[in-house]
Amino acid sequence: MSELLAKIAECIEFGKINKAAPFPPQMKGQEGADELTRQAIDEGIPAQQILTEGLMIGMEKVGIKFRENKVFVPQVLMSAKAMSTAMMHLKPFFLSGEVKEKGTLIIGTVEGDLHDIGKNLVSMMVEGNGWKVVDLGTDVKADQFVAALKEHQNAIVGLSALLTTTMVNMGKITKAIKEAVPEAKVAIGGAPVTDDFRKKIGADAYSPDPQGLVEYLNTQVA
Amino acid sequence: MGKITEKIKQGKVLISDGAWGTFLQNKGLAIGECPELWNITHPGEVLDIARSYIDSGADMIETNSFGGTRFKLEKFNLADQVFTLNKAAAQISREAAGTKLVLGSVGPTGKILMMGDVTEDELYEAFKEQACGLEAGGVDAVVVETMSDIDEARIAIKAAKENTQLEVICTMTFEKTVTGEYRSMMGVSPAEMVQPLLDAGADIIGANCGNGIAGMVNIVKEIRKINPLIPVLIHANAGMPVYNDGETVFPEKPEEMAAFIPEIIAAGANIIGGCCGTTPEHICKIKEAVNKQT
Predict the structure, then answer these.
(1) pLDDT (0 to 100) of residue B11
(2) Which of A27, A57, A148, B255 is most buried (most C-beta within 10 Å)?
């Protein structure tokens, strides 16, 4: 059983979606996350265990390799694709309540900024770690974050920006969020963002890479 | 052989221009406003930027068309204006440049091929449409820039090459990794970039944006190890942005950038200009430094 979960983790780590997928070349012709997750369920392995001891292990490995610049965006995207394929099999268990999300992350690219590659990457990594993600899209204004936060109580907010000109809006949005919901936690990220900047605008967390956000979120699990 | 490669063959080091985006913002372009629309609504301001770089001694200037593909313009409901906005961008820079050269700027679409966001054909059509608009407005070359994905870069080069008479330049954007190598967001190294871009038909290759001119020296060296002859263009940022009192600033002063000119020419760069945070003053100092060298 643990061997099967290890195989699933490997499929996620290397982005092996299903048997037909040509990527990665060294796993060609082998069963992928799709088939193996189905098999694990059929063998009676609890869905929660498949998630935490299979899928999440693989996502964590690719997240760490990405942080260390051992892999780049394409490999992470393939891992995320494998993950979402596997998650389709687990969906009924989330709906029934047998598997629970760790919490909710509300994420969006800030007002004035239309870039979404980084935000989407972070969303996939966070989802792959067992969180629910509410994606507000790009060009998201302060009141939209606040409204989402009121709808999803106790959610953590993630702000993304690519441009030096739009990162300044993170300050404005963080302030509005804290005024509306004082106990709310705000995490920020994006190419021009630094921890120094985070301190200046009064946000709670910064990470230069998605895995760092995942680690921060996991310290916030109630 | 095109006009630009011809000049480089004669052994000249050419000067390109500096930033446009940050310059437009200083002139009042609001955050969230479409920069390319200013080619129609504020042509005088755009012309002013173009002229300021010609006045500072640039041999070539770009156009205000970085986000001029339909995939970027559709976010402003301007997807049906691709040809018009790019043509207008080219005409403005042409007017400022006179006999100097104009490079039509083509930036990434923001779509990821491998995720199935778009097909190769859709990308090709989008780049073709933009390149044709730029050519109609009178550019001398197309510069496909800030690329991180080799496939998107190849498609953009092919689309320009196969549908216009223009010279085609392609520059990718590299960051320094924790191990000290240079890689694009999609994991491409400067060395890996060279052959695919040449195979796609690029006349000139290089790097733009990034973390400052010091890193660009290493990037040029890496390209030169693979290919000693292909003309290399560098558009460097004025360093890494820092946050200061509610605004972000690019810290490298004109003199600081100019100090790297001997080194970057020695490494093998043929065309040198600026990217984010650089100003006409930067270009002026770069020009002085180049003149001392050649």
Answers:
(1) 92
(2) A148
B268, two tokens = 């093998």
Candidates A69, A77, A166; nearest CB to B115: A77
**CA dihedral sign, ordered A31, A36, A39, A43:** positive
Q: Give the predicted TM-score (pTM) of the model.
A: 0.92
In angstroms, how far apart are the furthest CA atoms of chain B? Answer: 50
Residue from the list A115, A169, A200 with its beta carbon closest to the beta carbon of B243: A200
Does domain A2-96 correspond to CATH entry 3.40.720.10? no
Is the CB of residue A157 less than 8 Å from the CB of residue A175?
no
The pLDDT tens digits of the residues spanning A136-161 come to 999 999 999 999 999 999 999 999 99
Say if the Cβ atoms of B186 and A74 lie within 8 Å.
Answer: yes
Q: CA of A23: which chain B residue's CA is closest?
A: B114
Please report how the helices A56-67 and A210-219 are oriented relative to each other, as an axis angle in degrees rounded to 10. 130
Are the Cβ atoms of B248 and A164 closer than 8 angstroms?
A: yes
- Asked whether the predicted pLDDT for residue A222 surpasses 70, the reply is no
- What is the interface pTM, i.e. ipTM, of the complex? 0.85
Residues from chain B that touch A117, judged by Cβ atoms under 8 A, are: 110, 112, 185
A137 and chain B in contact, CB less than 8 A: no
Of A69, A168, A200, the CB nearest to B183: A69
Q: What is the mean pLDDT of residues B231-248?
A: 87
- Given an 8 Å threshold on Cβ–Cβ distance, is A73 in contact with B186? yes
Looking at domain A104-219, its CATH architecture is 3-Layer(aba) Sandwich (3.40)
Residue A215 has pLDDT above 70, yes or no: yes
Mean pLDDT over B22-39 rounds to 93
Q: Which residues of B touch A74 (CB under 8 A)?
A: 114, 186-187
Q: Collect all residues of chain B within an 8 Å Cβ-Cβ radius of residue A167.
A: 243, 248
Sequence spans of domains, chain A = 2-96, 104-219
Does residue A1 have a pLDDT over 60? no
- Asked if the Cβ–Cβ distance from A192 to B178 is below 8 Å, we say no
Residue B111: closest C-alpha in chain A: A117
> pLDDT tens across B71-127, in order?
999 999 999 999 999 999 999 999 999 999 999 999 999 999 988 889 999 999 999
B213 vs A164 pLDDT, higher one: B213
